[in-house]
Amino acid sequence: MWSLVDCRNVFLAVGMIGVIVFSVPSAMVLVRLPGGERFSELYVLGAGHMAEDYPFNVSVGGDNLVFLGVSDHLGSAAYYEVVLKLRNSTEALPNATSGVASPLPVLYSYEVFLTDGQTWEGGLNFSFSDVVFGENVSSVGRIRINDAWVNVDKSAVWDNANNGYFYQLIAELWLYNGTISSFGFHDRYVTLWLNMTSAA
Amino acid sequence: MRCWVSLFAALVVACLAVNVLPVSAVGPGEADAAVADADGALRGAFVAASDAESVGANVSGLMGRLTEAGAALTGAKVALASGNYSHAVSWAGTCKALAEGVSGDAGVLKSDSVARAAGWWLAVSFGVVGAAVFVAVLFLVWRWFRRVYGGKLLESRPEVAV
Question: 0.80 cut: is pTM over it?
Fold first, then answer.
């Protein structure tokens, strides 16, 4: 026969198991496990959806295709804006350390809405027109981004060290802040170096 | 014959007036206002969807529709920048209609989620009360058992083996 102490232990065990069983649904609602690191991704892929075959030598009229991607790991829904800018090698890049976007004008923007864990990818098809080559300088009059023609009037001097007229296409990631009802630079950007050539 | 020609000409002019003139009459101010309006509607729709998400609604479908609306806004901005004001107004209208649809659906999702959250609290309350009742009943059973056990122990006669 069991002693009274053994019986008490059995009652205590049954009681604890019962309390645990009853509190499981409540715990599932109330207990929130800590999430991982909160961040956003911005990336650019080549025409084959791989990190290769990026356009570099570009010329008038030639079609160039890359893919831009954004991933939301912020733990909630997010409204992103991917803005495109064009610079030459003397103009300012964004500064991700100090959180300052490039002061250059926006040529085109993508409005992207994602929930936590979702990824968006969009095609960026671009070409140039009104390109003029002078003595040690080239200038671009217009750029076509997807179906939109935009005036840029950008010039680049000949780079002796790297042998080319270099332009840089910048994609910056901006994030909408509903509290202040405005976008802020999200400290992420990707760039594509482009060498303007006269050859078709 | 001249009467019929005049009538036909008048009809043609009337058709042009109804179908073409209103579209081509869109000015930069109107287009700019339409794009700003669409932009505001899109931001408002996102805030509504975020509110719905904050009370536990699944808003991934709404996000897809907002991205469509965002593409329309991009089209409107591009058309506005290139001076194609009628297209800008058209794209802005598409964007605004999509955004307003999302706002409405986000409100419904939010209401559903709030109702579901109330159900969760009922489950939580049931769990807490259930656990308390279970412990109380077990304690009473334990007290009863201890009395019965002690009684049986007292009733049992010790036998002394010689």
Answer: no
Assigned domain for B110 exists:
yes
Interface confidence (ipTM) of the complex: 0.81
pLDDT of residue B12: 57
Beta bridge partners of A171: A84, A190
**Residue B149, domain member (yes or no):** no
At A114-172, the pLDDT tens digits run: 999 999 999 999 999 999 999 899 999 999 999 899 999 999 999 999 999 999 999 99
- Residue B32's identity, in one-letter code, is D
B141 contacts in A (CB within 8 Å)?
11
Nearest to A149 by CA among B26, B79, B35: B79
Question: Which whole-number Å values give the CA distances from A38 to A71, A117, A166, B50, B58, in the listed order?
Answer: 11, 11, 35, 17, 19
In terms of residue numbers, what domain contains B20?
2-120
Contacts of B73 in chain A (CB under 8 A): 111
Most A CBs within 10 Å, among B43, B91, B129, to test the A interface: B43
